[in-house]
Amino acid sequence: MTTAPMFSKVALIGFGLIGGSIARGARMQGLAGEIVATARSAATRARVAELGVVDRVVETNAEAVKDADLVILCIPVGACGEAAQEIAHNLKPGAIVSDVGSVKAAVVRAMAEHLPSTVHFVPAHPVAGTENSGPDSGFAELFINRWCILTPPDGTDADATEKLAAFWRGLGANVEIMTPEHHDLVLAVTSHLPHLIAYTIVGTAEELEGVTRSEVLKFSAGGFRDFTRIAASDPTMWRDVFLNNKDAVLEMLGEFQEDLSKLTRAIRRGDGEGLFEHFSRTRTIRRGILDIGQDEAAPDFGRKQPQLAKKAAE
Amino acid sequence: MTTAPMFSKVALIGFGLIGGSIARGARMQGLAGEIVATARSAATRARVAELGVVDRVVETNAEAVKDADLVILCIPVGACGEAAQEIAHNLKPGAIVSDVGSVKAAVVRAMAEHLPSTVHFVPAHPVAGTENSGPDSGFAELFINRWCILTPPDGTDADATEKLAAFWRGLGANVEIMTPEHHDLVLAVTSHLPHLIAYTIVGTAEELEGVTRSEVLKFSAGGFRDFTRIAASDPTMWRDVFLNNKDAVLEMLGEFQEDLSKLTRAIRRGDGEGLFEHFSRTRTIRRGILDIGQDEAAPDFGRKQPQLAKKAAE
Fold first, then answer.
1. Domain B183-295 maps to which CATH number in 1.10.3660.10, 1.20.1250.20, 3.40.50.2000, 1.10.760.10?
2. What pLDDT is recorded for position B238?
3. B187·A222 Cβ contact <8 A
4. Contact A286/B194, CB-based, under 8 Å?
5. Hey, which of A72, A120, B38, B251 has its CA 20 to 30 A from A134?
């Protein structure tokens, strides 16, 4: 018995880590009859064709979306408005149009004004990723056990939302629905602030007087190296995130600054009790994340550990 | 042919992650004729005996060091002065006395005043660890390809320093020698500041209004979860680090604050170019760390990735 795929034709606009992972996962799970992809640069399009993970690579956004039942913009949030404008006149009536942006309110505003009322606009954000980017970086398993947040505007067709939710569940994700504004506040703390802090501290370490760059690299296993992974994320994507979620990020930065001042004061005053109390409290958050399976329980994220050769028998 | 072990008797005072890893590594590599361990709590001592990874467990620090050729304090830096006092009169002349503290200047001062001139005091800091602690958390491979920093005071016997260096190389580590003051500055940026920042941001996320704890946990894969690992480190150890390396940590915090203000201003003003330039620069630091083998090149630290079941054959 042949089951019809969830969507006859899926169009992916942009083919970085997220677009490439959707393509590979959707193909593996048979979620699409046909997957068509496009990308802005000719080099990326050539590489996608070479990889052979989609059915067709086309040159323009407008061409990609023709006859597609599901269109997903997998590009930096700053580029979504223009892309929506480019595809608007070629969208099939009844199609679902979505995105994967890490910011929702600004992107929804930028896209919605261009989209015709004949399509269903269901914005989405899969909370998953690695520090890599580009057409080679994606993999089918990226979304497994991760959350995909949908932020359908008021009045969105419930069936369209459910259909997109089913697609994400097919890729292994859990789905949650919230408003764009609430999404932006939640992600400001679970993603945007951590990235900003990591970008900051890695920059700080690079410019120090008295400590060489070589020392920073050599002794990075003391904690610093963890931050460098996040600070190696795609610069264009993250520039757009901060420009488009300014208010929530600045609000979280304010909270962070207050807490940092409090801990700084405790250090300056030698308040061991205050430090101990704080450091004990944060431990429980880690446990909570492990309990719900949102991180690796193995020590050190399960980083590979080289082996010591056993001493030769005497 | 039997090779004599490097040290006839090694005494480990304290048996957490580091002490337990030294014991396991030294035994596997045959670096010690006998390993004697002790710990402050009776429960830990009982567990160490049960684990069977050392030759003997004794009740007091003074008893542990009798006849030992190498004594290593593997306890929080705040406890090292008192422990040095406790063992001073039982140390064998010619013995090497060392520690593993993450802070050096303050610890060296606290220990040196108690140690007799008949022993060789060679302070050490293996820059390695995981977020776990306690007698079960150690493993023989912890130090492989990591750096162990020795900070011998002026006038230390060169043979003693070399003998301790050889011991650490036997555990798989690379050895570097520097002054305690320089160590404390380098580690303030590669280890202490990152821990303080992680402890801060995890605390911030826990206390927010408008975002629930459950949301923070669920959507932590956006970057936040990386910080929770570090913020799950041993509270006693880290309290002591900040109390004992106050000046260098406050200096690094000042640098960090300046850089954070600069990035905050760029966000507030919508300076995309400035953000992009900064985010591109930090990427190269990550590459430097991978190039010298101080982190896992696999995406996401090589975290285990669950598999998608292949769609059933049609």
1. 1.10.3660.10
2. 96
3. yes
4. no
5. A120
